[in-house]
Predict the structure.
Amino acid sequence: MNIVRSHELSSNIFHLVSVGYFLADFVMIFWYFPSLGGYEYVIHHLFSLVAVAYSMLSGEGQLYTYMVLISEATTPGINLRWYLDVAGMKRSKAYLINGVVIFLAWMVARILLFVYMFYHVYLHFDQVTIPNEGVFIIILLL
């Protein structure tokens, strides 16, 4: 079984929802620019949108796209931390608990998962191929 190129209808639906999320977020960032974030957010959402859409349309790397999207699970906690700060609750127990949960979630979803993902890519590197030259150049330019 080719892990790098396998995909199902359920995978495409999940990717389509993710593309919709990034597109909606991208539009909101532009609409309220720069209140919701600067150019780094625009670049992050643009890259994410292109990568997830490419994975959805080509069927390539969907497993790895899922792994990267899991890292977005830390975002609600980070957003909650901002709300607690704006509400003047920086010294509250909720703010402290939120910080601990973010730290633990960050370790799992952003550090350990990426170590595993790169190890998995290494194990299945024989299945990874560079797409045609045009797509490869576009990916490099992004």
